Amino acid sequence: xxxxxxxxxxxxxxxxxxxxxxxxxxxxxxxxxxxxxxxxxxxxxxxxxxxxxxxxxxxxxxxxxxxxxxxxxxxxxxxxxxxxxxxxxxxxxxxxxxxxxxxxxxxxxxxxxxxxxxxxxxxxxxxxxxxxxxxxxxxxxxxxxxxxxxxxx
Length: 153
What we know:
Blueprint: E1 2-8, E2 15-21, E3 42-43, H1 46-62, E4 69-73, E5 84-85, H2 87-99, E6 118-123, E7 129-137, H3 140-145
Parallel strand pairs: 2-4
Antiparallel strand pairs: 1-2, 1-3, 4-5, 6-7
């Protein structure tokens, strides 16, 4: 999960649109009140999170905060300023981050860490379920689309 907040960093007061990975619990605590669409939302796709952060940053600049920048990071549950980057660097990070995320082999949806996952397999004659764990799906629907019914010979 990636969460977007606007911050005036406590170290120097610099305006930063922060993209925190790890969800809302890994944002810095002094976030400014929600003003722009996308703030305080959680995104599973880092590309969508970065594009939203860039839009917020540009709108904030237009509204007078000319030094606003985008920062990417995670507090680890503590408080820390995020390093800022250029728009191109943020977009590159999002593309690289996206490539590392697991996807459902059926629909290509990003698999969330805490999301319920489904697999296919078979039941032995003793009633034990054996899962094909190399194929993990985002939903029962996607798993069933890939299930092949086989008869015992």
